[in-house]
Specification:
The protein is mostly helical. The protein has 16 helices and no strands.
């Protein structure tokens, strides 16, 4: 390993021998993965955080058996930890791809990527304070800055670092977020459901500071691990030639059933309480492994379906959404904030899970349509164009010729 440049994931000769997958197809595959991951983020955030008080077992009055089923599915198959790791691995993929592209242009990858993460940090802070307290961009930007030197490492080193971060995540050293009592729940329902913008924003800022002190700190090693795994996957060449690794992808996809079973057993209480101090490190490691296994299974399944002539044209409809991930992520906060908070429609704490899922899927489909139409006329999404402009220090052309 030299210090002058970062090595490419695969040479042009090896890529030529890999099979019929072209550069455009590889990027399309990753855009589809981004689009699918964004769907999980939307549904998880909508059901667990936007519509009801955070960290509280609050059931909307009038919820029925269908809502109980939706809650059970969201708590297992779409667990917040699984979605976080999936989205984080895709983000790590993007960083690895960006580093190669910058190197190909002869620029300094470290300096450019650092600028990108600093701009993303500003966007994340503004998003958290003025739109939504569950912002993930701030954490991604900070971890993205610290992981830059490791992008030069081999896949084996990246896997070793990921394993180390998994151990750090399982250590019983992190402060627990405060639980919400009946008065806290009532206050959140009153402020978010009927408060003015200033009242909602004050509550949001308080929750954001708690999130940074507890949730973000506790999850940062796991996100670090996912970044390393995403980078290792790109550097290993699997995504350069998925056809050569079909059996590996099939094995990973099938292993998701085991991961899901572990999550279900933990959720219904057949395994030890993962919050208990005596068993917490071991059980947290098992829990993290189940999250990771399910996230990898989802990604492998998508890659396998993309190899199928019937599924590929349908899944490629999500590629424009993946190209505009930042724009659509921010747009979700704007739309959901208007629907649920008091300065908008004030539906906070009023929608059962099933209605929220239907609404979330409707918003997701609208975003797919919006992204497709937008990219027919423009080269980047609005937020991606702003991010790119501030990172490069110059304004790129937005409209297509």
């Amino acid at each position: 390993m030299t210090k002058e440049r970062w090595p490419r994931a695969a040479s042009s000769e090896s890529e030529a021998k890999a099979g019929p997958v072209t550069d455009r197809q590889r990027i399309d595959d990753i855009d589809v993965l981004r689009g699918m991951a964004l769907c999980g983020v939307l549904l998880s955030n909508l059901v667990e955080i936007f519509r009801v008080p955070r960290r509280a077992s609050y059931h909307v009055p009038g919820s029925g058996r269908i809502d109980d089923l939706v809650d059970a599915i969201m708590a297992t198959a779409f667990q917040g930890g699984t979605i976080t790791l999936t989205f984080s691995m895709v983000f790590g993929l993007g960083m690895a791809i960006s580093s190669e592209r910058v190197l190909a242009s002869g620029a300094s990858a470290y300096r450019f990527l650092a600028q990108k993460q600093l701009v993303l940090l500003v966007i994340g802070v503004l998003h958290g304070f003025f739109l939504w307290s569950g912002d993930i961009l701030t954490l991604y930007a900070l971890i993205g800055l610290t992981i830059l030197p490791f992008l030069r490492c081999s896949p084996r080193v990246l896997l070793a670092v990921a394993f180390l971060m998994a151990i750090v995540f399982c250590l019983p050293i992190y402060p627990q977020p405060p639980s919400l009592g009946p008065d806290d729940v009532a206050h959140a329902l009153r402020v978010y459901g009927g408060g003015t913008w200033s009242e909602v924003n004050a509550q949001r800022c308080r929750e954001l500071l708690i999130q940074w002190r507890t949730g973000s700190l506790r999850w940062s090693p796991a996100v670090w691990m996912a970044f390393c795994l995403g980078t290792a996957l790109w550097r290993s060449g699997i995504l350069h030639a998925p056809e050569r690794y079909l059996r590996v992808l099939q094995a990973i996809a099938l292993s998701g059933a085991l991961s899901l079973m572990v999550i279900v057993l933990m959720h219904v209480g057949y395994l030890p309480d993962w919050r208990a101090s005596a068993s917490r490190p071991v059980v947290r490691f098992l829990y993290l492994g189940a999250f990771l296994g399910l996230a990898l299974s989802y990604g492998s399944t998508i890659l396998l379906l993309l190899r199928r002539p019937f599924w590929r044209p349908w899944l490629l409809r999500l590629a424009p959404l993946g190209q505009m991930t930042l724009t659509n992520y921010l747009m979700q906060s704007i739309v959901f904030g208007f629907v649920f908070y008091g300065y908008g429609l004030g539906q906070y704490g009023k929608w059962p899970s099933a209605i929220s899922i239907v609404f979330g899927l409707f918003v997701y489909l609208l975003q797919v349509l919006f992204s497709t139409v937008w990219l027919r006329h423009f080269r980047f999404g609005p937020a991606e164009w702003l991010w790119r402009s501030l990172s490069y220090g110059k304004i790129p052309a937005l409209r297509r010729k």
